[in-house]
Amino acid sequence: MSRSSSVGDYLFEPHAPVSIPIARGGLFAVRRVYCVGRNYAEHIKEMGNDVRDAPFFFAKPADAVVVGGASIPYPPQTSDFQHEIELVVAIGKEGSDIAVGDALDHVYGYAAGLDMTRRDLQAVAKKAGRPWEMSKSFDHSAPIGTIEPASTIGHPDKGAIRFSVNGTVRQTGNLNEQIWSVAESIAYLSQFVTLKAGDLIMTGTPAGVSAVMRGDVLEGSIEGVGSVKTTII
């Protein structure tokens, strides 16, 4: 027999939901964060891999999200902490086995985000055939800017991507260089999991990833979408 729960039933107070500001008001409550691996050909080459036949995904916990330009700490257990600027897709409608032609109907909006990576730990995991979680899914590893609703900006399929460290440009690219479009990524992912309102999809990074240090100011922007900024402390 089941019964409804009250706060007093929990061993400890439930954690507050993670949320991202929406342009012109409101908050987007985050459920899950999915990330597309290797979605720009030049980045695939710089990482020493071949262009893949199908996309693959890894995940970050919702509480890895950092908003409002807040600073992030240099993480432990790494000496090669790297940046990846990405278009972030905010899902606003539930669906599974979604057709490519219907995929954009499930998008609420878009933002600019950073997939921060402990690259040395990732290299060790790859070599050993182990999971990537400790290189990708750690605390404060997903700074994300304000979400712009698709009803305002549409569904960008082209636009310049730019990322700088301390004012020096490190990454440049264009959304039209994605191997798998937003619609294709949504459709493919939805074959494996049911996407729900509150899910985020980080869609991969262009070439130019490199290490950052304590004190560095990280700034990224995507034309027609927005910006993201953080400082490493």
Automatic annotation (TrEMBL):
<dbReference type="InterPro" id="IPR036663">
    <property type="entry name" value="Fumarylacetoacetase_C_sf"/>
</dbReference>
<dbReference type="InterPro" id="IPR011234">
    <property type="entry name" value="Fumarylacetoacetase-like_C"/>
</dbReference>
<feature type="domain" description="Fumarylacetoacetase-like C-terminal">
    <location>
        <begin position="33"/>
        <end position="232"/>
    </location>
</feature>
<protein>
    <recommendedName>
        <fullName>Fumarylacetoacetase-like C-terminal domain-containing protein</fullName>
    </recommendedName>
</protein>
<keyword id="KW-0479">Metal-binding</keyword>
<dbReference type="Pfam" id="PF01557">
    <property type="entry name" value="FAA_hydrolase"/>
</dbReference>
